[in-house]
């Protein structure tokens, strides 16, 4: 029966692997966006990127000996499958700890203690494994799929045991650091992991190990950056992106910038193009008139000063824009944003073509990679699948809402007293970490750059884990060893037969 309980997830996993095989056979080369050439060039040169962290180019560099874009996209799809596996493992383990089998292996009528954790876990992997938007993201020559996996693996390590051991804390910190040097949005997320570990009473050794394991790889990357460019930092454009964010609301009549900064005032542009995109990449961009473009020291300094003034003078307008663009994540339909063409890059298309710049860089990585982009009938099958298996943003909103409010029924009773803070404790020690990570992944881009549909998808696995942990009761038995004591290595989320004390 225990093996049969894994059958629902095995079916979901089989479909997930099959559709990814279809995607790779139909589109043997990755999809490109405007950022893809810089990632690929950084991999060819093995150097840190000036505007974006280079964790993803390091992966591309490791795959370079294969000289195959097909191998690249296959690996990225495998990473996407691993994300689904991690979601399942976290939910299934929580369910097994909450509903342990009885004496003699009694699983209850209809063996529900075996079946429910597997059914719930399998259902929560569907948005991660079978959504066509997720598949398209995995097919992009971009960092998002690797970033999502590394961050999810960090959260998994932190949640794996009720009280994390020092080595699990170190693993969580190290993976969080790798995520931070893959996408800079990962830098502040280690705080959520540490908070979750603290609420789960991880102990000072686990927390210290997580901090040290986070700082050392991050510091090593920054030292590499300093050796290359002379600055001890992660990128040379730390203020450029948030300056683009201010373009949506900045009013120079209110800001009254000094003469040197007036060039940074956003200009009227094509209304079909988002202001953040316009001030960075179109002819209206002020950086076209600044020496060194967006990677120059002067551009970064001027962007920082203008951004500070804009937010100080218009805090309400800034907050309104952040809320508006965070809310876009939950729209039912996708709109042509930030440009009429960008949002279409996140879908499989009937045809593919590369411009001269892409073809030149691609030939250095995979000499045969530019020949065939679309292969029938596989591409047609992928397009048919895409038209039926796309999750609207509203569903993500409902999953996030469920991960917050479904902890409320966990009001317990001990003896004659009601435990009114039971839901808070249950949510804080379980769903908080993945839920907070999911929400942060939606808010951070809206607050520091701009809304983009590819920024929404990394939040999905964490929202699914949070929903599962909110639904599932806390383990019925909790060991009361001293924190970081001699028995620290025992798994507090193991089945109740392995526990010794009642909660």
From TrEMBL:
The chain crosses the membrane at residues 6-23, 69-91, 111-130, 142-160, 166-199, 206-224, 391-411, 432-449, 455-472. It is a multi-pass membrane protein. It is found in: Cell membrane. Residues 477-503 are annotated as: Disordered. Keywords: Cell membrane, Glycosyltransferase, Membrane, Transferase, Transmembrane, Transmembrane helix. InterPro entries: LipidA_mod_glycosyltrf_83. It comes from the Bacteria. The keyword Transmembrane applies. This is Glycosyltransferase RgtA/B/C/D-like domain-containing protein.
């Amino acid at each position: 029966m225990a093996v049969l309980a894994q059958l629902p997830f095995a079916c979901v996993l089989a479909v997930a692997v099959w559709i990814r095989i279809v995607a790779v056979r139909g589109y043997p080369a990755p999809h490109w966006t405007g950022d893809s050439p810089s990632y690929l060039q950084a991999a060819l040169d093995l150097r840190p990127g000036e505007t974006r962290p280079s964790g993803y180019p390091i992966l591309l560099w490791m795959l370079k000996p294969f000289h195959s874009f097909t191998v690249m996209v296959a690996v990225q799809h495998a990473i996407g499958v691993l994300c689904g596996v991690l979601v399942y493992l976290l939910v299934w383990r929580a369910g097994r700890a909450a509903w342990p089998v009885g004496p003699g292996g009694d699983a209850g009528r209809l063996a529900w203690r075996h079946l429910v954790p597997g059914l719930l876990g399998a259902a929560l992997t569907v948005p991660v494994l079978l959504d066509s938007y997720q598949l398209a993201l995995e097919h992009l020559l971009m960092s998002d799929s690797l970033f999502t996996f590394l961050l999810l693996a960090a959260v998994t390590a932190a949640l794996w045991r009720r009280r994390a051991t020092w080595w699990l804390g170190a693993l969580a910190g190290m993976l969080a650091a790798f995520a931070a040097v893959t996408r800079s949005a990962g830098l502040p997320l280690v705080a959520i992991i540490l908070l979750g570990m603290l609420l789960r009473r991880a102990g000072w050794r686990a927390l210290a190990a997580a901090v040290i394991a986070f700082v050392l790889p991050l510091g090593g990357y920054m030292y590499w950056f300093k050796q290359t460019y002379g600055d001890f930092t992660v990128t040379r454009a730390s203020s450029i992106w948030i300056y683009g964010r201010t373009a949506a609301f900045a009013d120079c009549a209110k800001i009254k910038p000094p003469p040197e900064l007036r060039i940074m005032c956003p200009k009227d542009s094509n209304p079909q193009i988002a202001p953040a995109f316009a001030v960075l990449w179109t002819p209206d961009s002020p950086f076209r008139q600044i020496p060194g473009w967006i990677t120059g020291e002067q551009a970064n300094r001027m962007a920082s000063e203008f951004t500070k003034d804009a937010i100080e003078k218009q805090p309400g307008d800034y907050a309104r824009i952040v809320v508006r663009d965070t809310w876009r994540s939950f729209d039912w339909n996708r709109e042509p944003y930030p440009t009429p063409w960008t949002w279409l890059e996140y879908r499989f298309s009937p045809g593919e073509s590369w411009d001269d710049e892409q073809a030149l860089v691609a030939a250095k990585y995979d000499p045969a990679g530019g020949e065939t982009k679309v292969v029938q009938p596989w591409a047609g099958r992928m397009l048919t699948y895409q038209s039926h298996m796309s999750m609207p943003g509203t569903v993500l909103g409902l999953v996030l809402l469920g991960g917050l409010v479904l902890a409320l029924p966990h009001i317990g009773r001990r003896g004659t007293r009601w435990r009114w803070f039971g839901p808070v404790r249950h949510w804080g020690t379980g769903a908080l970490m993945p839920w907070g990570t999911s929400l942060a992944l939606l808010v951070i881009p809206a607050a520091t750059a701009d809304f983009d549909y590819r920024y929404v998808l990394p939040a999905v696995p964490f929202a699914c884990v949070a929903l599962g942990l909110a639904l599932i009761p806390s383990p019925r038995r909790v060991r009361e060893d001293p924190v970081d004591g001699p028995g620290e290595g025992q798994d507090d989320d193991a089945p109740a037969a392995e526990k010794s004390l009642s909660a």
